[in-house]
Amino acid sequence: MTWLAPLRELDSGQRHTVLASFLGWTLDAFDFFLLVFVLGNIAADFHVHKTEVSVAILLTLAARPLGALLFGRLADRYGRRPVLMVDVLLFSALELACAFAPSLTVLLLLRFAFGIAMGGEWGIGASLALESVPVKARGLVSGLLQSGYPCGYFLGAIAYWVVFDVFGLGWRAMFVVGVLPALLVLYVRNKVPESPVWKAGRAGRQHRSMWVSMQGQWKRLLYMMLLMMAFNMFSHGSQDMYPTFLQSQLHLSVGAVTILTMLLNAGAIVGGLGFGTWSERIGRRRAMIVAALLALPCIPLWTYGGALVLLGLGAFLIQVMVQGAWGVVPAFLNELSPDEVRGTLPGFAYQLGNLLAASTATAQSWLAEQHGGNYALVMASWMAGVALLLALLAWLGPEVRGIGFGEAGS
């Protein structure tokens, strides 16, 4: 397949770097989505309402900007590779700790801490990979990296099926499984080289504060933050409450929920790779706009398909578009960022957008309660409005496809 040609041209070190960055985001997302599947079980165990447990999602998303800023600054100063390893170990350990939470309050605190660690991974992994590959490979690698997110959701669905249906275990066992990403550190340590752009810039660059480095860039950060707010409302609006919608409103079995979630994430992988690669030809902004607008006709089938086959088709198609738009994001944000803050700025902007969109799941849950548990109505309306907002913001932004990264990236 000709669209895979850029990957075949990578050397061994570049391939290991791309794979490690992909796996990092996959396993980070896997740990995040484990909570989504057991939200109702946790509520029942702690004798609280689902909306109260959904605050854990809000806290995780709200904490991620702190992690992006903290770990991003460390990565800009000490290198992408060592900071990535520390970050992966930290979010894995915190995920395991959630299995032993004695109360909802403790669980909420742990999910906030997990959010700090989760917030660091995306920016570091994306900058490490995109600084290491040729310019012409960025679109495909961007889509591949972002496809790690639905892959993590996909693995979470499998874990949910195995833990609950096959072994009949409870929600705590899901978080025990979440310690597995720690093994990625061994691979990064043995196979992944440091970013050539960071190494080249380290010799001739004095370390400066974030504020000094960002001079003249604040308007760009504001734009990136608002764009990522819309993006996160788009993805979390279509994903976080989806299992709850299937379980609570449609009363589907564990097996059916797993199948639909797997179809949803299969569509996301196809979309991320397809639109990420396509953005090399038509431009980053245009690819995002097309994907966002094509989500609109998919919404009725996704929420009101009725039959399992039609619901599955709707889930697949809408995520082709949602994650298709997202597949362009790693390349777009990294191309918008100066060399000396590339470990920080893309991830920080992404996670600030997350902060602004952090109440998505809680808002959808509350709105559904106000409409008699009608998640379909709430999610469909939400996605239609956000798709239009995202298309508008992408249209207003700059086009920077193919800009050089330092000496090694140019």
Description:
- There is one protein chain.
- The protein has about 400 residues and is an all-alpha fold.
- Helix 4 (about 50-80) packs parallel to helix 6 (about 105-130).
- The two termini are about 25 Å apart.
- It has helices spanning about 5-10, 10-35, 40-45, 50-80, 80-100, 105-130, 140-145, 150-165, 170-175, 185-190, 195-205, 210-215, 220-240, 240-250, 255-280, 285-295, 300-305, 310-325, 330-335, 345-355, 360-370, 375-395, 405-410.
- The relative contact order is 0.16.
- The protein has 23 helices and no strands.
- It has a single domain, classed as Growth Hormone, Chain: A.
- Helices cover about 80% and strands about 0% of the residues.
- The radius of gyration is 20 Å and the shape is globular.
- The mean pLDDT is about 85.
Mean of residue pLDDT?
85
CATH architecture: Up-down Bundle
Give me the number of helical elements: 23
The total beta strand count reads 0
N-to-C SSE string, H for helix and E for strand: HHHHHHHHHHHHHHHHHHHHHHH
* Biggest sheet architecture: none
CATH topology: Growth Hormone, Chain: A
Uncertain regions spanning at least 5 consecutive residues: none
CATH class: Mainly Alpha
Integer count of domains: 1
**How much beta, percentage-wise?**
under 5%
The rounded distance between the terminal residues' Cα atoms is 26 Å
Please state the overall shape, judged from the principal axes of the Cα atoms: globular
From the alpha carbons, calculate the radius of gyration and give it in angstroms.
20 Å
Helix/sheet category: mainly alpha
What share of the residues lie within helices? Answer: over 70%
CATH-level-4 superfamily name: MFS general substrate transporter like domains
